[in-house]
UniProtKB/TrEMBL annotation:
<protein>
    <recommendedName>
        <fullName>Condensation domain-containing protein</fullName>
    </recommendedName>
</protein>
<dbReference type="InterPro" id="IPR023213">
    <property type="entry name" value="CAT-like_dom_sf"/>
</dbReference>
């Protein structure tokens, strides 16, 4: 007998994005998180770990189903997380591109599978998942669960949605007040039309992936600059500001009023092991007009003041009631509200993520040295560009995900150089 687990409001938000990605001719809201290993992990331990993972979190082996206007994960009695093996030539980006461009339909495919790419000296272990299933923080916890059997007991706990828990802790007057505040904030964001780095082009779209890597000394320089510019804990704002200035330097294809970058933040307290499944995030926007973006000092002052004002006015909470309301709308209508400004243009100038420092309790993964981590995702068109930051082993890297033919290699190379320069500009 199967069970059904409803999507939480943040999951439903991502399902609306899945629809929009598929509308652009792409497979849907698929993501990949990969460990680059300096050897082959213990295969028996990996298979045993995946079997235990499916028993502990059976929703990971479910299937997405529609239930009227709502959606749920249909969980079988004996859930399985598939593991596939491939030969590998050592190139990371083509492997991730192949997996995400070749993903199946959200309603007909397992929402999570693992792929082990074996090379002559290294391996790439990839988790490919449908974004409505869980967020990047949840995927990191999956790898931690697999890597350290002695730590698995810590992953027994409440898996209910933090979004719903927070909403239920509020009185109805507070929910309605924040709902109205979130709508007003959206209207305020839309007073400035968002610039776009590329115009949608004719032809079959494909996801492409490339990396910008900084060494340890360069990363230390970036972190010091972030502390000086936006204060302790302000790394995300520094990365967003650097991204905006790199977009400005590379040149917008559609120049309007401002750059607008949506970003999510984790609702889990600290390094809490649970919840693992579901998207446990809230969202905010960073926005700066072109005049402000061209002045480096002014931009970081503006972003810091904008964020402090958002927290003071509880705008970091105000999108939770909007997400709750959105789950009752048809996906097509919900997606229109999420994406399109009243001017008719796309609200997001680029997608952004900062997963922070990625580390585990041990320096290896099932006996194989951990060399690096990689992240990739499908994107709507427009904007057709997603920049995903992470740190591992004291080194910062940016995974630049983009769509062709909307972007060409020359623009991406120019953008990557500008992003590096901005990160290191101090």
């Amino acid at each position: 007998m199967t069970a059904c687990v409803p999507l939480n409001p943040a999951d439903h938000f991502l399902l609306a994005m899945d629809r929009e990605i598929r509308k652009a001719g792409l497979p849907g809201a698929w993501c990949a998180f990969a460990l680059e290993l300096g050897g082959e992990p213990d295969g028996d331990a990996l298979e045993t770990g995946l079997a235990e993972l499916a028993r502990r979190f059976p929703v990971l082996g479910g299937r997405l189903v529609a239930r009227g206007r709502r959606f749920a994960w249909q969980v079988p009695e004996n859930p399985v997380i598939p593991l596939y093996h491939h030969t590998w030539d050592g190139a990371v980006s083509p492997a991730l591109e192949t997996l995400l461009n070749g993903a199946g339909d959200a309603f007909a495919s397992p929402p999570l599978d693992f792929h082990c790419f074996r090379g002559e000296e290294r391996c790439l272990l990839v988790a490919r998942w449908l974004h409505p299933l869980l967020d990047a923080g949840g995927v990191r916890r999956l790898f931690d669960y697999l890597a350290a059997p002695q730590r698995r007991d810590r992953y027994h706990g409440d898996e209910s949605s933090l979004v719903l828990r927070r909403l239920r802790s509020w009185s109805w007057p507070r929910r309605l007040r924040l709902l109205w505040r979130g709508k007003r904030h959206n209207d305020w964001i839309d007073r400035l039309a968002s610039s776009q780095p590329a115009r949608p082009a004719d032809g079959t779209r494909r996801l492409r992936h490339t990396l910008l890597r900084l060494d340890e000394s360069e990363t230390a320089q970036v972190l010091a600059s972030a502390r000086r510019r936006v204060g302790l804990g302000g790394q995300t704002l520094y990365l967003i500001g650097s991204l905006m200035r790199a977009l400005e330097a590379a040149g917008p294809a559609l120049r309007r009023d401002a750059w607008c970058i949506p970003y999510a933040f984790d609702l889990r307290p600290g390094n809490a092991p649970v919840p693992v499944t579901g998207n446990q995030v809230a969202a905010l926007f960073a926005q700066a007009d072109h005049a402000t973006t061209t002045d480096r000092d002014a931009l970081f002052r503006h972003l810091r003041a904008q964020h402090e004002d958002a927290v003071r006015r509880e705008l970091d909470q105000a999108y939770l009631p909007l997400m709750w309301l959105g789950q009752w709308l048809p996906l097509v209508r919900y997606a229109e509200i999420l994406r399109w400004q009243k001017s008719g243009g796309e609200r997001a100038s680029a997608w952004f993520s900062d997963v922070g420092e990625v580390r585990w309790a041990t320096p290896d993964f099932l006996g194989a040295p951990l060399v690096g981590v990689h992240h990739a995702c499908q994107i709507t068109a427009p904007p057709g560009l997603a920049v995903l930051f992470a740190r591992h082993g004291g080194r910062l890297q940016a995974a630049i995900n983009y769509l062709t033919p909307d972007f060409d290699a020359a623009w991406i190379d120019r953008f990557r150089r500008h992003l590096r320069d901005e990160l290191l500009a101090g």
